[in-house]
Amino acid sequence: MTRKQKRLSVIAGGLGFLAVAVGLTFYALGQKASYFYMPADLANVTLEPGQRIRLGGLVEKGTIVRDQGTEVEFSVTDTERSVKVAYSGILPDLFREEQGVITEGSFGPDGVFVADSVLAKHDENYMPKEVADSLKAKGVWQEETQ
Amino acid sequence: MVEIGHFALVLAFALALVQSVVPLVGARTSNSRMMAVAEPVSMAGFGLVLLAFAVLTVSYAQSDFSVANVWENSHSLKPFIYKITGTWGNHEGSMLLWVLILTFFGALVALFGGNLPATLRATVISVQGWIGAAFLLFILATSNPFARLTPAPIEGRDLNPILQDIGLAIHPPLLYLGYVGFSVCFSFAVAALIDGRIDASWARWVRPWTLAAWSFLTGGIAMGSYWAYYELGWGGFWFWDPVENASFMPWLAGTALLHSAIVMEKRSALKIWTLLLAILTFSLSLLGTFLVRSGVLTSVHAFATDPSRGVFILCILTVFIGGSLALFALRAPSLTAGGLFQPISREGALVLNNLFLTTATATVLVGTLYPLVVEALTGDKISVGAPFFNLTFGPLMIPLLVLVPFGPLLAWKRGDVLAAAQRLMTAFAGTLLAVLATMLFIDGATVLAALGIGLATWLVLGALTDLALKAGFGSASPGTMLRRLTGLPLSMFGTALAHLGLGLTTLGLVGVLSFESEHILTMKPGETTEISGYVLRFDEIAPVQGPNFTESRAKFSLLDAAGKPYGEIVSSKRFYPVRQMPTTEAGIKTMGLSQLYVSLGDETADGSLVVRIWWKPLVTLIWGGTLAMMAGGAVSLFDRRLRVGAPARRRREAIEPAAAS
Predict the structure, then answer these.
(1) What ipTM, to 2 d.p.?
(2) For B575-605, how does the pLDDT look when each residue is reduced to its tens digit (9 = 90+)?
C-alpha cells in the first residue's frame, strides 16, 4: 500500500468506528431516555404499556401508607392532579410529606405507578429542578423563606 | 479578621491580572525583564490565596458566625474535624479551594520551571494567570466567602449532615487536584499554540503533569464513589448521574491524554492531537465545574444552587473553551507534524486506545447534555440514566479492555500482533481457566458473568505477563531476572500496576453486578435472617446522643452457618436537629474482599424495622483497583526520566533513545 492508501484506510476505519458509536448512541437515546412528567401532564400524553417515565411532584400530605412489610404507597401531586405510586424498598432519607420527589418506573395495569426508584435530594432546601420549574409554571411555587 | 482574607483575594486578583499580561507581552517582545515578572507574581498570588483560605479556615475553627458562610455551614457543636473540612463543604469555600490549587500549580511551574525555555515558561504562567483571574473574579463577584452578618447570630445552621463525613472531607481536595491539575496541561498547550512550536521540553513537561493530575482525579472519583456507597445508604457506587459524569469525562479524556503523551514524548508523533486532548481535557474539567456549580441538570447529588453563578461560569467556559479551540484551529496547521509509524505498532495501539477513550467520552458527554438540549429545543423533559450508558459506554469499553494487554507488548514503530498474541498464550489459558471455573463452581453464574470474570483475569494476567516478559521469565536465571526487574524504568512498573488495577476494578464490578444478593425485610429484635451462608440476628435498637445529632443505633450479630458468632454490625439512622435532616449510617462488615451491607429503613406500624441487606461480593476490589491505578500513576511519576529536575540524565538519554523504549 502506498502511504496515501494507508492513511485513507486508517481514516476510513476511524470513521467507521465513529459511525458505529454514533448509531449506537442515537439508538440508545431513542430507547433508553425516559420522559419526565408531572401528574397533570399525563392527561395529554399517551404512554405505551410498560413505558418507563419519570414522575415528579410533591408527596401529597396524608397519603403515605406503609404496610407491615416493605411496601409503601403514596401520592405524587402537582396540586392539580395526583397519582398513586407504589414502591417497595427503603425511601430516601429526605422523603417527607409535601417534599419534592422524582419517581421512576412505569404504570401498572391498575393505573398505579409502580416506581423502582424514588429520588429525593441531599439538601433539605433543594427541590428537584424539573419539579421546581413545573410548579413555578403552575404558579404554586413558594420561595423558601428563612 | 476575615477582611484580611477578602483583601488578600482582591490583591490576588490584581496580581493575576498582572500575571496574565506582563509575562506574555514580555515573551512576545523578547523582553526578559517583563518575562521575569512571572515567577514572583505567581508565587505571591499563591501566597495571598493561601492566606485567604487560612483566614476562612480559622473562622470555621473558631465558629465565627458573624461570617455568613460560616453561619450557613457550621455549628458550634459540630465535631472539630468537620468544622475544618466544612471550609470546603460549601460552594464559596470549595471555589476558594479550587483557586488555591490553581495558584499552587502555577507557583509550582514557576518554582520548578527553571529548565524550560524562558518564553515558554512565561507564556505558560501567563495562561495560568488568565484562568486564575477569571475564577478569582467569579469568587469576588458572585461567591464571596467573607461576607459578614450584622448582628452576628448566636448559632450556626450546621453543615449538611451527609457532608459531615471523612470521605467528603478528602474527596473535594483530591478531585480538584485532578481537575485543576489539567489546567497546567491546558496552559502548556495554549502556550505552545501561542509560541507556534512544540519542542522536546514541552512533551517532557506535559507528561508528568498529566500523570499527577490523572492520579489525583482517579483517587478523587474513587473516594466520591466510596462515599456515596456507604453514606447514602443505597449501596450503589455509581449512578451515571450528571455530577458524577462531570468528573468522569475529564478522567476519560485525561486517560487518553496520558497515553498520547507517551507517544509524543517517546516518538514525537501525535503532537497536534496531544495538544488538542490537553485542551479538551481541561475544557471538560471546566464543564464539570459548571455542571456541578450551576445546577442546570437534575442530579441526585445536587445541592441548592444559584443560577447567576451558573451564568458566570458559563461565560468563563465559553471564553476559555471557545478561545483555546479557535487558537487551535488558527495555529495547529502551522505546527510540524510528528514521526510516522505503521498501524500495527505501540503507537498504533495507543491511537486505538485514544479512539476508544475519546469516543467513550463523547457518548458520556452526549448522554449528560442531551436532556439540556432536548429541553431547550422542545421543552420536553427527559432523563438519561444508567440504561443509556450501559448500552453505549459498555460496548465501547469491552473491546478496549480486551485489547489492553496487547499494547505494552507491541514494539514501537512496527509491531507484530502474532508475536504478541503468542506471548500472551499463558495469560489466555489462565483466562479460559477462570471462565470455566466460574461456570462450573459458582452457583447461578451466567455466561455473561463468567465472561466478565474472564475479562478481568485477562487484564490482570496480561499486566503480569508484561512484567514477566521484560524480566525474561522462563529464559533467564532468577538472579538475572531480579537484576532485569530492578533495572526496568519505573514507568514500566507504573503501566503494569495501572493495568492491573484496571483488571481488579473490573473484577470488583463484575462481582457486584453479577453475584450481588439483596434482601429487604422487616425485622423485630431477636429475629434472624440468612444471607449468603451467614445468619444475621437483629439484637437491639437503642437511642444514642451524638454531639450534634441523635441516633437510633441498631445492633446486629453475624453468625456463621454453624451458629457461632462471627462479628457484629452496627447500623443506624441519625437525625440532625439543626437542619431537620435524617441520614443513614450503613453498617458494613468487610469479609475478605466482599462486604455485607446493612441499611435501616423506617419503622413499620407494628414496631418492626425495615432492613435492607446486601451481600456484595468482591466489592472492595472496585476501589482497591483504583488505588492500584493511582499507585501506578505515582510510580511512573517518580521515574527518573520524568523528574523535572534531572537535566544531566535527560541529556544522556537524548543521545541514547533506545535505552528509553
Answers:
(1) 0.78
(2) 888 888 888 888 999 988 999 999 888 777 7
How much is the pLDDT for B239?
Answer: 84
Residue B275 included in any domain: yes
Domain count, chain B: 2
Under an 8 A CB cutoff, do B303 and A88 touch? no
Containing structural domain, residue A117: 35-138
> pLDDT tens across A11-56, in order?
888 888 888 888 888 888 887 778 888 888 888 888 877 788 888 8
Q: Are residues A87 and A110 in the same domain?
A: yes
Q: Are B128 and B180 in contact (CB under 8 A)?
A: no
* CB within 8 Å: A29 and B384: yes
Does residue B193 carry a pLDDT above 60? yes
Query: Do A63 and A122 sit in the same domain of this protein?
Result: yes
* Cα–Cα distance, B191 to B209 (Å, whole number): 15
> How far apart are the two ends of chain B, measured CA to CA in Å?
56
CA torsion sign, B92 to B95 to B101 to B104? negative
Chain A hits for B605, CB-CB cut-off 8 Å, are 66-68
Question: What residues form DSSP beta bridges with B571?
Answer: B554
Residue A69 sits in the same domain as residue A124: yes
Q: What is the pTM of this model?
A: 0.90
Question: Does residue B192 have a pLDDT over 80?
Answer: yes
| DSSP state letters, B72-117 | HH--TTS-HHHHHHGGGSSHHHHHHHHHHHHHHHHHHHHHHGGGS-
Smallest CA–CA distance, residue A35 to chain B, in Å, is 4
Which grid cell sits at B424? Answer: 500472551
- Residue A128 in domain: yes
